[in-house]
Structures are given as structure tokens and as C-alpha cells.
Design brief:
about 325 residues, mainly beta, eight-stranded antiparallel β-sheet, five-stranded mixed β-sheet, 4 helices
Length: about 325
């Protein structure tokens, strides 16, 4: 091999990898303790997922102290990539009641701007789990496995969040849609998945949405219309997912929760989806580790993700109409 080829090979081997490296670590508490402090370090595109087994109704408290202001954590349930809590928009301290018996995932990462510069974050992650099983639901919740009302209504979903509709009973199944507080759905029967109760539902508004949701978020409801809440829609929006490429059209689907709350999934031409969550009419959250910014011109949201992806979402997608 010539000296030139040897030099080129050495240069290629020295280039930093840009693929995200996800490392998983199981969290366990010492006997008699309900929490732990975990010290770690990440660099560039490294991601660490801390797995912790918890029960429905328990309270989880998480705090991240880090040397890098661009380092955050997200809280996820099982293999679901839609975060329960997003640190980059809400901060590095969280306390909340867990909805299901599941493996929860605390994901520590650097924002893309810091990862591109191959920065390092030294951190201490403090985690505590307290409380026991949730108290028994009141009789109007989905607490039976047969019969029940003709219609359910979604209730108790945390503010600004949505309830995942899945292809099967349990959090390991893929997400096929989402519902918000106040949505009415048809009752197709419930069953147990482990120790959690799941119910098969159909969108009461006649939209083509059928799947399974956690029964703890369902209460008995009448069959009357719900004034546009639970509005599902699909369509096309202008998009430019890759910097330097011309604008094209991307297919989308949306679930609206009313009052400017909506979850939008955008199909990417190269495969996969980009998620954008609107809260009170503002695009607040996107996929983990990515930054979102926007400007609004008349009735059009011009959304940029990570400074390179561009999406044009009309106001009617969020509010309907």
C-alpha cells in the first residue's frame, strides 16, 4: 500500500462517528432505600438509557445535575419513543405519578448543537420511587372486563399530554394514534395485560381509529357528539426535511385535543416520522434531542427543527376547520 493510501486510511479512521450510541443500564436500589444517585458521563452523540421497573400509582422523582447546560433527560415508558417528560423544554427536575406497571426509561443525552461539537457532560442523576399501587378506581372507570357502557370518555391525562392508542393491549405494542382529555370513544371490551387493564376502543366520531388504551384513563360517557374534540385528520404539508433540498410535500396525521392542543406526526420521505406537539396553539415539543423553533405568519406555522428541517403547518391542522 502506498504512503498516500495509508495516510487516507488513517484520516478516515480518525473521523468521529455521528451515529447515536445508546447504552442501557438497569437501576436498582440498595435494600431499605427508595432512591439512588447515579454518576455518569456522555460525550457527543452518546445516549444513556437508565431502566427502572415501577408500578402504576407510584411517584417517580428525577433530578439531573450536569456540567453541560445542553445536557438533559427525557422520561419514556417501555419502548414508546413518545416521551412522558421532555427535559429540554421543561427542565431537569421532574416528579409525577406513573400511569402503568412498566419498565420506564430515563434517557440522558446532549442536544444536537453540543453533540456536533463533541462536547462532554459529567452528571449526577438522582432517582427515587415512592408509594405503592394506585387506589382502586371509582366504579365509573373502566374497571370491568366485560360489558360496561357503550362509550368511554378520556379523563386524567396529564396537562399538555395525549393518551397513546396502541395496536394491542400493553405498552410494548406500536402506537397507532392518540387521544386527549374529553375525547369520546366506543367501548369494544377490556382485558388484562399483566396487572394493567386495557380496553379496545373505536373513535366515536367515525374516524378510522381503532386500538387499545390504558383503562385507567377511561370513564363512562354518553354517545352525544363532543364538539369537535377527538378530531383525527390526515393530509399533506410543505416540508424540507434535508437542508439544501427543495420544498416537497409530506403526509401527516393529527390528533386534536381542543384549545390548540394537538399531536402531529409527519412522514419523512426517507422513512420514519417526525413528531410535533402543540400546546395552547404553540409547537412546543419534537423528538428527543432535537431543538424546535417557529414563527407564525398569518395562519401558517413555519417550524424549524434542529435548524435544518423545515415544515409549514397551517393553523387549520391544529384547530380544525
Amino acid at each position: 500500500m502506498s504512503n498516500l493510501l495509508i495516510l487516507v486510511a488513517a484520516m478516515l479512521l480518525s473521523l468521529p462517528a455521528i451515529a447515536q450510541d445508546v447504552r442501557e443500564e438497569r437501576v436498582s436500589f440498595q435494600p431499605g432505600r427508595s432512591g439512588a444517585d447515579i454518576r455518569g458521563s456522555i460525550r457527543g452523540y452518546e445516549i444513556v438509557d437508565y431502566l427502572i421497573d415501577a408500578r402504576a400509582g407510584q411517584t417517580i422523582e428525577i433530578s439531573l445535575k450536569t456540567s453541560n447546560l445542553s445536557s438533559y433527560f427525557n422520561l419514556l415508558q417501555g419502548s414508546d419513543l413518545t416521551a412522558i417528560y421532555v427535559g429540554s423544554t421543561e427542565g431537569n427536575d421532574y416528579a409525577g405519578v406513573l400511569p402503568d406497571d412498566a419498565d420506564y426509561r430515563i434517557r440522558v443525552y446532549l442536544m444536537r448543537n453540543a453533540a456536533r461539537r463533541d462536547e462532554t457532560a459529567d452528571y449526577t442523576l438522582s432517582v427515587a420511587i415512592t408509594g405503592g399501587k394506585a387506589t382502586a378506581p371509582s366504579p365509573d372507570y373502566a374497571d370491568g372486563l366485560a360489558g360496561g357502557p357503550d362509550f368511554w370518555q378520556v379523563k386524567g391525562v396529564p396537562a399538555g399530554d395525549t393518551l397513546n392508542v396502541r395496536s394491542g393491549a400493553g405498552t410494548s405494542n406500536r402506537v397507532v394514534g392518540a387521544l386527549a382529555n374529553g375525547d369520546r370513544v366506543r367501548n369494544l371490551g377490556c382485558e388484562m395485560a399483566g396487572t394493567a387493564r386495557w380496553c379496545r376502543i373505536e373513535a366515536a366520531s367515525g374516524q378510522a381509529l381503532t386500538g387499545w388504551v390504558s383503562g385507567r384513563y377511561l370513564v363512562e360517557a354518553g354517545a352525544e357528539p363532543n364538539n369537535g374534540i377527538n378530531s383525527q385528520a390526515t393530509g399533506q404539508i410543505p416540508c424540507s426535511p434535508v437542508a439544501g433540498q427543495p420544498t416537497t410535500n409530506c403526509a401527516f396525521r393529527v390528533t386534536r385535543g381542543g384549545n390548540g392542543n394537538a399531536a402531529v406526526w409527519i412522514e419523512l420521505p426517507a422513512g420514519g416520522e417526525r413528531y410535533v406537539e402543540f400546546v395552547d396553539g404553540r409547537p412546543e415539543t419534537t423528538d428527543a434531542g432535537m431543538q424546535i423553533s417557529f414563527e407564525k405568519i398569518s395562519d401558517l406555522y413555519l417550524i424549524r427543527i434542529d435548524g435544518s428541517e423545515r415544515y409549514e403547518i397551517p393553523e387549520a391542522v391544529v384547530y380544525g376547520g
